[in-house]
From TrEMBL:
Residues 196-325 form the GGDEF domain. It catalyses: 2 GTP = 3',3'-c-di-GMP + 2 diphosphate. This is diguanylate cyclase. InterPro entries: Diguanylate_Cyclase, GGDEF_dom, Nucleotide_cyclase, Rev_trsase/Diguanyl_cyclase. Its EC number is 2.7.7.65. Pfam families: GGDEF (PF00990). Gene3D superfamilies: 3.30.70.270.
């Protein structure tokens, strides 16, 4: 009992999803004597469910987060038939045996009718009723606490991640190791055009003040909610979408080539342009985007994307502009001073 209480105190002492995952799997691993415990992220891409390990601990090991190494959403749900059944039937748990002969228990973390995460416990001998009861209790605490964390990390109007979480998510992307790493003074490798990079895009609604002035703030708010929905449906599950405040949004695109980033961003711009906004009619957005370099601070990276956005605004709006391309074309200039940059 002491051990359970100690784990509960640890789990509820965190203000961060990753640390919560780590403390939950550490607790389950120790209290159930499992061979392995994981948090699985469940995402839906084009109507298909995918499963990816988000955090893992093995017997005798230390719990650690698992960052995706590529842009794939993970393994198709077909590789987890018992879990697929469990999700289809909105069940609280499912058991099965893996090809390694070990027993597995899956407990989805349900929020209403959606489960975007699941606890997976692997055990050599299987699970007795006491273990299942104890783990189910931990899952309930986990779910409630995740709910609280979500509430503090999300913008109340659109449900998107808020500004507060941006630095952390950007650091995580850089930590994943696949951001372009340049030493100070080292020239950018422009010849690697097909190279996968991380991207940051700043999105701003065009003439949004006019929407508020003509139709009122309630319709303005609805436009923001619909644009947030279009952002979420246009970008991939592994990308991150934030509302920075007002009518400005920021997207972090994970591991993709310049051509793909351009295509995905322009598809979103065009989705907004062709959307019929109730009462308001047509709304457009301008976008500035740039590649993320591990050596640049978040302020510098945001500044680059902002410069490209201002260029888009000053040159017709309803367009997406790439910072590096504008600099290369002599349309924007930048003078770097230590960790910051000044623009002309
Ligand atoms: N309805 C609503 N309006 C907001 C919110 N936050 C900021 N705004 C309004 O957004 C408008 C932003 O206007 P501006 O910064 O002048 O920019 P703009 O009219 O979009 O013009 P451009 O960016 O130059 O295309 C202001 O009128 C703000 O009051 C919000 O949460 N809801």
């Amino acid at each position: 009992m002491d051990s359970l209480l100690r784990h509960m105190v640890d789990m509820t002492g965190h203000r961060d999803h990753t640390m919560l995952d780590i403390s939950v799997i550490s607790a389950v691993q120790e209290l159930s004597g499992a061979t392995q415990t994981r948090v699985l992220a469940i995402s839906t891409v084009c109507g298909q469910r995918f499963v990816r390990s988000r955090a893992c601990i093995r017997a005798g090991g230390v719990a650690c987060p698992e960052e995706p190494q590529d842009s794939s959403p993970g393994e198709p749900i077909a590789a987890f038939p018992e879990l697929a059944w469990c999700l289809d039937h909105h069940a609280s748990r499912a058991e099965g045996m893996g090809s390694d002969g070990l027993r597995r228990l899956w407990l989805p973390i349900w929020f209403g009718d959606k489960a975007s995460a699941c606890l997976e416990i692997t055990h050599a001998q299987g699970f007795n009723a006491d273990t299942v009861h104890m783990v189910s209790g931990i899952v309930s605490v986990y779910r409630n606490f995740q709910n609280l964390l979500d509430y503090s990390e999300r913008d109340s109007l659109t449900g998107l991640l808020n500004r507060k979480t941006f630095d952390d998510q950007l650091a995580r992307m850089l930590h994943a190791g696949d951001a372009e790493t340049l030493l100070p003074g080292q020239p950018e490798r422009r010849h690697h055009v097909a190279e996968e990079k991380q991207w940051l895009a700043v999105v701003d609604v065009d003439h949004f003040k006019l929407v508020n002035d003509r139709f009122g703030h309630l319709y303005g708010d609805e436009v923001l909610i619909l644009i947030a929905n279009l952002l979420q449906s246009s970008f991939r599950a592994q990308d991150r979408v934030f509302r920075f405040g007002g009518e400005e949004f920021v997207v972090l695109l994970r591991s993709t080539t310049l051509e793909n980033a351009r295509r995905i961003i322009d598809r979103f711009r065009s989705n907004v342009e062709s959307h019929e906004f109730p009462q308001v009619g047509q709304v457009t957005v301008s976008v500035g985007f740039t590649s993320i370099r591990a050596t640049d601070s978040p302020v510098v990276t945001l500044g680059h994307a902002d410069q490209a956005l201002y260029f888009a605004k000053a040159n017709g709006r309803n367009r997406a502009c790439h910072y590096d391309e504008l600099v290369a074309g002599g349309l924007l200039q930048t003078i770097a001073t230590n960790d910051t940059a000044e623009f002309f």
